[in-house]
Design goal:
This protein has about 550 residues and is mainly α. The chain is built from 21 helices and seven strands. The longest helix is centred in the middle third of the chain and has 31 residues.
């Protein structure tokens, strides 16, 4: 059980944790073998730490490769199907990068305002060589997570020390929310991964002001905000690092905010320009696209809204229990108040990050109904939990006791993580996919589908057809009809707009019983083409008024 004996190492004098140069040793040498801080004596056994971190890296990547080829039918099916639909439209429509296109705009072009669509664009390029497969889209999140994990270890090591960094890496790797999001075809994990990389290199730059970490940090942060604008919350820890002005005892201390050095100020202004200007340009363009083209949709619009206390309590409870697990939540809460060494000027970095995320959750209350919006809580709580583990490890005098407690902590967290992540993989949209595959077989390629799909575009993605959500108004999904007349009016409007088929799935088949006048109208104006326990597909008669 050597992996967890790090808790019991005696204290030794603190060494400067931040190497000034990478040398020829490469990333692994930088991470684990050069000037490792030694609050508990780990520096005397760096190769053991290297093996442990490498094992965590391998296991965490393997966990995300499970069901990597699963169709987009899990609990986040609608968001992934939207991204996958944009990727396929790039593939089919000529790779017009600046014009991402969705499938649920009927016979309109369907251009929408989205995040910087680099992920679906790269997937579309890969489709040219490997064909259209779900694992291509999913693998992007896995790859970027794998790249970012060593930098997360480095970041926590500089803040809390090596023992905390090992534990934090473990928690970060196997948190339920992060495991599931880390294999989903969505921008959230790639954006967070780039933010972590950028944050670490920004820390490096504030220490030695070398141009290499400067540009790596600026480009990584810029891409992270482009890919997911909500990652702008990373500005809080960045501002903290700039204000803290991390120094090296052997050098002149750098106070980025207070320092009057002209070069430092210019570098900081250049950093802001690189990180903010591209995002401002792209999101202005995305807004213009949403204004010009039907369905006039801008991804994420409407999320900024203050909600009731019960709303936030539900988010907090869900995050603490099923997204993070109670074990991680409790350890993070303890770590939040663990005293830090005075020689660590940047020990409050994770506190600033936490405050920014909490304010974001409050301000974007409605948007946070989606669990992936709380993803930044994962590295923050993992860092605090690592600090708590290191603190307790320094207080336990018995090595056997430390080993036993470590095993109990690891096993309880692993079991709870499995329990809470497993339901997310379960199919919630299989009937939508099956209906889509049936539509693909029995309808012409130019068919326009009216889909009673509860706003989930999975039908459109797997049918490879365009159409509308039912009910809809000005391109916006309106939910269930208020009565039969409401459904009849919307269906006839869409039929006049070119709709050729209508489909109901298990989630909406009850409409045909609950709205008898609508069912009668459908029987008189459409022909049943296919039926199963999961869906019914009708062909609309051209002559119906």
């Amino acid at each position: 059980m050597f992996r967890f004996r790090v808790l019991m190492m005696p204290k030794t004098p603190h060494l400067n944790p931040l190497p000034l140069a990478e040398g020829r040793g490469g990333l692994l040498r930088s991470i684990l073998l050069r000037r490792v801080p030694t609050p508990f004596g780990i520096a005397r056994r760096p190769y053991r730490v290297a093996k442990l971190v490498l094992a965590l890296w391998i296991l965490s990547v393997a966990a995300r490769l499970m069901f990597i080829d699963q169709p987009y039918v899990d609990h986040w099916s609608w968001r992934q199907s939207d991204v996958a639909g944009i990727a396929r439209n790039f593939y089919d429509g000529g790779f017009r990068f600046a014009y991402p296109q969705i499938d649920w705009a009927g016979n309109a072009t369907g251009y929408v305002g989205t995040e910087f669509p680099i992920l679906p664009f790269v997937a579309a390029i890969c489709y040219k060589f490997a064909g259209i497969h779900e694992w291509i889209g999913r693998s992007q999140a896995v790859i970027l997570f794998a790249v970012s994990l060593p930098f997360f270890f480095l970041l926590v090591r500089e803040i809390f020390g090596s023992t905390a960094a090992v534990w934090a890496t473990f928690f970060f790797s196997f948190t339920p929310l992060n495991i599931f999001a880390g294999r989903s075809f969505m921008p959230d994990v790639p954006s967070l991964s780039l933010a972590i990389i950028g944050l670490y290199f920004f820390l490096r730059w504030t220490h030695d002001q070398k141009w290499t970490p400067f540009f790596v940090a600026a480009i990584a942060i810029s891409l992270s905000i482009l890919i997911k604008v909500t990652t702008i919350v990373i500005a809080a820890p960045l501002v903290y690092l700039a204000a803290a002005g991390i120094g090296d005892p052997g050098r002149r201390e750098i106070k980025l905010v207070r320092n009057r050095d002209h070069r430092s100020r210019l570098q900081l202004l250049l950093f802001i320009a690189i990180t903010i200007v591209p995002s401002a340009i792209w999101y202005w363009h995305a807004y213009q696209i949403a204004q010009r083209f039907y369905p006039h949709h801008f991804f994420g619009a409407g999320g900024i809204r203050i909600e009731s206390f019960s709303w936030y309590w539900h988010i907090a409870w869900q995050t603490a229990v099923s997204s993070l697990t109670p074990v991680l939540a409790i350890m993070a809460l303890i770590g939040l108040f663990v005293p830090q060494s005075r020689d660590r000027k940047y020990s409050r970095l994770f506190h600033w990050w936490l405050v920014a995320v909490i304010l974001f959750i409050i301000a974007v209350g409605y948007g946070n109904r989606h669990r992936w919006y709380q993803l930044p809580m994962v590295p923050i709580t993992a860092g605090f939990a690592g600090a708590a583990c290191a603190f307790f490890g320094s207080k336990i005098p018995s090595r056997p006791a430390a080993i036993i407690l470590s095993i109990l902590l690891v096993s309880s967290f692993a079991i709870l993580s499995y329990v809470y992540v497993r339901p997310l993989y379960e199919s919630s949209a299989a009937q939508l996919r099956n209906a889509g595959l049936a539509l693909n077989k029995i309808t012409p390629s130019d068919a326009l589908i009216v889909a009673a799909d509860m706003g989930d575009p999975t039908i459109f993605y797997y049918s490879q057809r365009k159409g509308w959500h039912f009910l809809e108004e000005d391109g916006i999904y309106q939910g269930t009809p208020s009565d039969s007349q409401d459904a009849i009016v919307d269906l006839e409007k869409l039929r006049r707009g070119g709709a050729t088929h209508v489909v109901f799935t298990r989630n909406t088949l009850w409409w045909l019983d609950y709205y008898p006048e609508f069912a009668q109208h459908l029987a008189q104006s459409a022909t049943l083409m296919a039926a199963s326990t999961e869906f019914k597909i009708y062909k609309l008669d051209a002559g119906t008024k």
